[in-house]
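User: Some background: our group keeps a shared notebook of sequences we're curious about, and every so often someone picks one and asks for a predicted structure to add to the entry. Today it's my turn. The entry only has the sequence so far, pasted here. Could you supply the structure so I can complete it?
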Amino acid sequence: MITIMSTTMPTEEAVVGEQGEDLALLGLLQLVSPALPIGAFAFSQGLESAFELGWVHDEASLGEWLEGVLDDGLTRCELPVLARLQAAWAAGDGTVVAEWDAWLAANRETAELAAEDARLGASLARLLGSLDLLSEASPLPPGAGYVTVFAWASHRRGVPPRQALLGFAWAWLENQLAVACKALPLGHTAAQRLVERLRPALVAAVDEALALPDDALGPALPGLALASALHETQYSRLFRS
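Assistant: Of course. Here's the predicted structure to add to the notebook entry:
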C-alpha cells in the first residue's frame, strides 16, 4: 500500500512548541518590517512639521520629542489598546473590538492623523487578505484602523500580546527615525544612537501600558496635535502627515 503524505502546511494556530513560537516571531518581524508594503514610509505623524517649526532640529531634540510621544502618546493610547484588542480577538468579541477601534478613531486629533490611521489600516487589511490571513468571516469593523488590523494580524499569527506591543513600538520608532534621516537630516549613526537610547524606554512603555486601567487611557500630546494641524498647510512637504 502506498501512503500519500499531504503537502499542506499546518495553520499557525495548529503548530505548538518551539516551532509555533518561531513562526509567531517571524510573523511579527514580517508585520513590523519597513519593507511591509502598506505605505507607512509616506507618513511622519507630525514630525516633519516639528522640523519645519524648529522644535526638533538635532539628535538631542529629536530624542526628547520621541520620548515625549512615547510616554504621553503610545504608552497611553496605541499600546494598551492593542493589548485590549488582541484579547478581544482571542475571545471572539467583535463588539469590544469595534468599541476600541472607535475609541482610537476618536483620539486622532487632526485630519492627517485620522487619514493615516485609516489608510494604513486599509492597506494592511488588503495585504492580509492577499496572504489568506483575513477571510470574509474575520470580524473587522468597517474601516478598521491600523492598530485594530495589526492586533488581528498578531492574534492570527499567534504572537503573544507583550511581543506584539514591543513590535508595534519598534515599528513606530524605526519609522520616526527614517523620517528624520530623510527630512532633518539625521545621520544613520545618530539614528542608531537614538535606538540605543530608546530601547529601554520601549520596554518600560510596554510594561506601563499593560498595567494601565481603562480610565487612565488617553494621549496627552498638544504639541504633536498642533504640529500635525500645521502640517496640513505646510508649503513644502515630503510626507502625508
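Suggested note for the entry: Residues 1-11 have pLDDT under 50 and may be disordered. DSSP finds ten helices and no strands in the chain.
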